[in-house]
Design goal:
The protein is mostly helical and 314 residues long. It has one domain. The protein is 75% helix and 4% strand. It contains 8 helices and 2 strands; from the N terminus they run βααααααβαα. A two-stranded antiparallel ribbon has the order 1-2. Helix 2 runs antiparallel to helix 6 and helix 4 packs antiparallel against helix 6. The longest helix is centred in the C-terminal third of the chain and has 126 residues. It is rod-shaped.
């Protein structure tokens, strides 16, 4: 007895597309993907960042020279200030009454030639006084009164007046010498105080220089830090831009490498959309199977049940 079989076959173009898809997929996946084309990359340091690192290394301990100079000025100031005391002590010795002949006394400032000047002046005064006395006697002789009472009174008054003038002259010269010595002593006192003040001023200037050096020691790292910060910031921006370029290049390479796979994916999606389309009906009549054919048919059916892939045509 003849057997009639009916089956729905896919459209011819669907079969052809499936065959083409399988061939392309096998060929595409057979080639290993070169991932080095789009491996991640890290941008190197920007030259500004390198410069910042160099400055940071050079700036370590950069304050030491300034601190060393500050210490030197401090030592000098201490030595200079120590020289103020002798001037102050010497000036202090000139603040007493100035009596006697010791250090700081007025007599120490008296001119060594003062007595000679006084003696010479008084000697000349005595000569002139004697001349006046002689002239007084000559006048008395002219009037006939020499040796008389009136002449004696006149000589006594003249001598008394001369002695007073001589004593006054001597006192004036002594007072003048004393005043000059006192002025010299006061000037010496002022000079000593001035020298002490100058010495202290020099010490203060040295201390100021030391403080200025300390300020430079504090300022140097701060300025270097600002430069390093600016270089690092700008260099970081440059490095980030370089990294962005590398990232964009990596993404472009990855997109290029994956494009065939994406295309095959779209191809497969389209092929899957065509699968539900009904194909043509095909009818086939066959003769009544023999016992052997029947047994083989059951075997094929059981095999299909055991292996679904056989039934699916894969």
């Amino acid at each position: 007895m003849a057997i009639t079989q009916q089956s729905i076959l896919p459209q011819n173009y669907v079969s052809q597309l499936g065959q083409d898809y399988g061939q392309q997929l096998a060929g595409l996946t057979a080639i290993p993907l070169d991932t080095s084309q789009f491996a991640p990359q890290v941008a190197g340091q920007d030259p500004l960042q390198t410069q910042a690192a160099t400055l940071a290394g050079q700036g370590v301990g950069g304050y030491q020279p300034y601190l060393g100079q500050a210490a030197t000025y401090g030592t000098q100031a201490g030595t200079t200030m120590g020289g103020v005391s002798p001037y102050i002590s010497a000036a202090g010795a000139l603040t007493g009454p100035g009596a006697g002949t010791g250090a700081g006394s007025v007599s120490q400032y008296m001119s060594p030639y003062q007595q000679q000047v006084i003696d010479a002046t008084l000697g000349e005064f005595d000569i002139q006084s004697q001349k006046g006395l002689t002239n007084l006697g000559t006048a008395a002789i002219g009037v006939g009164g020499y040796g008389g009472g009136r002449h004696g009174v006149a000589e006594a008054e003249y001598q008394s007046s001369s002695d007073r003038q001589r004593a006054l002259l001597n006192a004036q010269m002594l007072q003048q010498g004393f005043g000059q010595a006192l002025g010299a002593r006061q000037q010496d006192y002022t000079n000593l105080l001035g020298l002490g003040g100058a010495q202290a001023g020099l010490a203060s200037s040295q201390m100021g220089l030391g403080q200025y050096q300390q300020g430079l020691a504090q300022l140097a790292p701060a300025l270097a830090g600002q430069d390093i910060g600016t270089l690092s910031q700008v260099g970081g921006i440059q490095q980030q831009q370089a990294q962005n370029v590398l990232n964009a290049q990596q993404q472009a390479a990855q997109m290029g490498a994956m494009e065939p796979y994406q295309r095959m994916g779209v191809y497969g999606q389209g092929l899957g959309a065509l699968a539900p389309i009904q194909g043509q009906m095909q009818t086939q009549q066959t003769a009544d199977p023999t016992a052997l054919q029947t047994a083989l048919g059951w075997t094929s059916t059981l095999g299909g049940i055991m292996n679904p892939r056989i039934g699916s045509g894969v």
